[in-house]
Amino acid sequence: MGSEGPARTQLRVGRLVKAHGLKGALKLELYTDDPDGRFTPGAVFTLQVPVSSPWHGKTVTVREFRWMNSHPVVFLDDIEDRDAAESIVRAILWIDNDADSAPVEEDAWYDHQLVGLSVVRDGSVVGTVARVDHLPAQDLLIVRPTGEDREVLVPFVKAIVPDVDMAAGRITVTPPAGLFEDLPVDEPVTAADAVDEAPAAD
């Protein structure tokens, strides 16, 4: 059986970005506000990797976690050299979470909880969450506008997604102009506007 099914509640806590050094260390991209608490020696993570990966269906155990030049680095059991580390790069790490308790991180949700939620702007439903994309810089909510055959990429940040109401089945968005609709073309920038925005000369 695969290890990625939603049978148990899991929390995504990091991604292995690249091998570091020659002794099997891996640089981490963190998805948790408590890395020192999550990556303790002995912590076990489920791996999200392609089916073709030799690591598919396996778990990894933390041997050591440290900060090196302000970058989080993890050492895992049975990964003793750079070649082994390279074989697991890009894996996403998930940890079992107690289903009876809320996620440790504030404002933490699982992808399957967000998919299907209504997207509300100014009190009106404008679409539905189709999926969540996890990019190095930030997460994106992929929203399918109501009645349209296209997708809108909404940065999953507090400034644009101020509220997620799981009980009501909706998220509230305050997107910048032009994210969900084309900007009007009848308001060109005037020369005066350009002068006002230009930096003052020394």
Protein architecture, described:
The protein is mostly beta strands and 202 residues long. It has 2 domains: 10-96, Elongation Factor Tu (Ef-tu), domain 3, CATH 2.40.30; 111-172, SH3 type barrels. It is 10% helix and 37% strand. The chain contains 4 helices and 12 strands. It has helices at 35-38, 82-86, 111-114, 191-197, and strands at 10-20, 25-30, 44-48, 59-68, 71-76, 92-96, 118-121, 124-134, 139-145, 152-155, 163-165, 170-172. The strands form 2 sheets. Strands 1-2-5-4-3-6 form a 6-stranded antiparallel β-barrel. Strand 1 (10-20) and strand 2 (25-30) form a beta hairpin. The termini are far apart. The model is unreliable at 1-7, 99-106 and 185-198 (pLDDT under 50).
CATH domain class name of the largest domain: Mainly Beta
The main sheet orders its strands as 1-2-5-4-3-6
Mean pLDDT: 80
Low-pLDDT segments, ≥5 res:
1-7, 99-106, 185-198
CATH topology of the largest domain: Elongation Factor Tu (Ef-tu), domain 3
Helix content: under 10%
> How many structural domains are formed by the residues?
2
CATH hierarchy: architecture of the largest domain: Beta Barrel
General shape: elongated
Question: Tally the helices: what do you get?
Answer: 4
Characterize the main sheet.
6 strands, antiparallel, barrel
The fraction of residues assigned to DSSP E strands is 35-45%
Radius of gyration, in Å, reads 21 Å
Tell me the name of the CATH homologous superfamily of the largest domain. Answer: RimM
Quickly give the structural class.
mainly beta
Number of strands: 12
Order of helices and strands: EEHEEEHEHEEEEEEH
